[in-house]
Amino acid sequence: MSQEILPRAAGGVPPDVLTGLVRAVRSGDRDAFVALTRLYQQKIFILAYSFFRNKEDAVDLVQEVFLRIFQKIDSFEESRNFEAWMFQVAKNLCIDHYRRSRGRRTMESGLRVEELPLADDRTPDAVRASDLKAVLARSVDRLAERQRTIFLMRHVNQMGNEEIARALNISTGTVKSLHFKAIRRLRALMEPHLGCST
Fold it and tell me: What domains can you pick out in the chain, each with its CATH number?
């Protein structure tokens, strides 16, 4: 799975398709499980990365999350939202691993900023794109955990506010507020490197 990790996830999955996949996985269909994994591994990676800020740890966590989902899929109640349940499983595993590893080592950035879209192409000629991407990666790493998670889910994973709210079990208003704060903080952190004021 590690070589296939991080392909772009498709947009929203129609509820009937998702229900069919979940039922197929419950009945032991491994192809359905592979399809489910491919649909959501990018989104789970972003969540895991926001906790660890290390690509290798996030990839390991993605694999553990899908193993746990496979093991626990029979406990999922179909009346619930599968995506919300899956993200809760992922979030709980991330929190557990983060707490265990926090004292043992410092987290390092593994963010691939090539995937982050820049809001404005009008950068000064003196600043090379690669330098700007490095500044952006460092700036994203400096965001508060919840702001960083939401920023990455929005801009790397291209998830909407409601989708993020369901995944993190918070209100849409909280998502909007934290995203606004993340953007404002990033502007402040990057302004000195852009050579202009906003």
Answer: 15-101 (1.10.1740.10), 113-194 (1.10.10.10)
